[in-house]
Amino acid sequence: MNTPTLITSLVMAALLALLIAFFIRQMMRGWLHRAQRQAELIGTLPPLPDTVGPAIVPPTKGLYVGTTLVPHWNDKVAVGDLGFRAKAVLTRYPEGIMVQRTGAGPIWIPDESIVAVRTERAIAGKALTHDGILVIRWRLPSGVEIDTGFRADVRAELNRWLEENA
Fold it and tell me: Distance (Å, rounded) from C-alpha 6 to C-alpha 15?
């Protein structure tokens, strides 16, 4: 390889690396801007209860898909760690629903905040060919309604959640 070709290749590689870095920076800025815009809407999440009764629906293992703002199934919440996927265990108690996530904090959904429990084909970041995502619509203390998505490892287990909330 001659010197002018080598220099041209190195310059092009450097420009490509700068372009990629620029796009990654812009995506991160967009995510942070979204989080700042949503922080006031979301407010604080309900605190975890000190004690709970016996489980109404036993623990269901699966994937916490994420949380979105109602009514937009693709407007993912970026506040805190609500926007990140994680392995999770979902359990229903008389007082509410506990979402225990691996690598992220638990989410407590008080029973009086639950608006609806249903299955959907899609929620931001996850789309299926069948109704396999359990979506829990609930109202935050700030008054904003959000949808929390969960995909069970065993799809048949979602029927218990739907029967309990029918």
Answer: 14
The answer to whether 93 and 44 are in contact (CB under 8 A) is no
Report phi then psi at 123, rounded to 5: -150, 155
d(CA 29, CA 113): 32
φ, ψ of residue 97 to 5 degrees: the values are -120, 135
Cis bond leading into 4, ω under 30°?
Answer: no
Burial class (CB in 10 A: 0-12, 13-18, 19+), 100: middle
Q: Which of 154, 149, 155 is nearest to 132 (CA)?
A: 155
Q: Is 82 helix (H, G, I), strand (E, B) or coil?
A: coil
Tell me the per-residue pLDDT of 103-129, one tens digit each, with 9 for 90 and over.
Answer: 888 889 898 888 888 888 667 766 665
Q: Strand, helix or coil at 48?
A: coil
pLDDT band at 20 (very low <50, low <70, confident <90, very high): very high
User: What DSSP string runs through 92-110?
Assistant: EETTEEEEEETTS--EEEE
* pTM higher than the cut 0.85: no
